[in-house]
Amino acid sequence: xxxxxxxxxxxxxxxxxxxxxxxxxVLGHRxxxxxxxAPMLEEDMALxxxxxxxxxxxxxxxxxxxxxEGAGHDEDAYAYLRDPADYLNLLLVEQPNGDFARTIVxxxxxxxxxxxxxxxxxxxxxAQLAAIAARAVKEVAYHxxxxxxxxxxxxxxxxxxxxxAQAGLALLWPYAGEMLTSEPDExxxxxxxxxxxxxxxxxxxxxxxKAVAAEAGISLPTTPFSQQGGRRGHHxxxxxxxxxxxxxxxxxxxxxxx
Amino acid sequence: xxxxxxxxxxxxxxxxxxxxxLPVLTLGDLGIIRDVAASGTxxxxxxxxTYSGCPAMNTMGMDISLALAEAGFGPVRIKTTLxxxxxxxxxxxxxxxxxxxxxxxxxxxxxxxxxxxxPLCGSTNTGEISHFGSTACxxxxxxxxxxxxxxxxxxx
Lengths: 258, 156
Hints:
Strand order of the largest sheet of chain B: 4-7-6-5
Shape of chain B: elongated
CATH architecture of chain A: Up-down Bundle
Distance between the termini of chain B: 40 Å
Mean pLDDT of chain B: 91
Structural class of chain A: mainly alpha
Number of strands of chain B: 7
Helix content of chain B: 25-40%
Helix content of chain A: 55-70%
Distance between the termini of chain A: 20 Å
CATH superfamily of the largest domain in chain B: Fe-S cluster assembly (FSCA)
Oligomer: heterodimer
Number of helices of chain B: 4
Shape of chain A: globular
Order of helices and strands of chain B: HHEEHEHEEEE
CATH architecture of the largest domain in chain B: 2-Layer Sandwich
CATH superfamily of chain A: Ferritin, core subunit, four-helix bundle
CATH topology of chain A: Ferritin
Strand content of chain A: under 5%
């Protein structure tokens, strides 16, 4: 018998937490797809390590979501037993990996934002979110340093690596703006100092991204941030395939543990 | 009635448990044990996770429970606390010396970019090969003097 999907409460704090947990879970899953396939051993370990950190951040957030919701859902229930429309991650993180350059560009765009975001969340009025942030902020700083260094190496490398970094950025750029906007149901949390308003991080994020792009010799696209909807559960085709793989074991063997 | 002696004994047992991935270190050396409270109904051990996704954390909890149960304490509860966040500054001086002797360059103090000394020959003529190593807590380095690669416990 297939495991039954869980239904989610509409509590704004729950949804706020799940949005960030889902970002970490889905990007962690994407990066784990590189395990055994990266262009060199050091990068294989690096991408797997970043994936592991993201998975750990997702677990901490899911565990807290379970407390907030109070419906008896554990980390696995959130990670494995929701239908696609109940995942609230950014469209940016669910896009297929593409080549190594595109993968690195995504980690860079995401980490450059999350580094700022977690820094601000260490001052959240919610003690548990602040505690999760205090640990995550150290990890994301390391991810950012690694990804930004690679963006410079690729952009400032051979014509081939430059072209690939530029192409990856062009493809991902329309999705990047979703990070910088809040959802209507987050306004009260922002006003209460529980959540950080991502809009206030737009300029610092853009400044950071511009600086690294300049050093890498790649140009920031002028296309608008046209793609969003993941935060409300509107996902692309890639998400269904990703979840089919992610959920396979729990759906096939409900409550399996090892 | 539980004596201070039981508390001290339980704490000593928990702190003496070896790290599952770096067995030269004890969990006491690593600085993850925040509190050990023995009462008539069992022992509660509070630990601080190192990295968010460190796969060794579950094993650490099980190893602590097992060691205390073998010494006659029980039932054991493992409590995880996130705040304040663990930092490599909590690794004991003895732990740093053990890492060094094991061939892993210990972390420097946070916020201080001191040169990393080769754990084999002591030279500070070293360089980073990769930001990430075989576990979340290590980076891969090499010594330019003795030409040997080595692990560096990242400052965190």
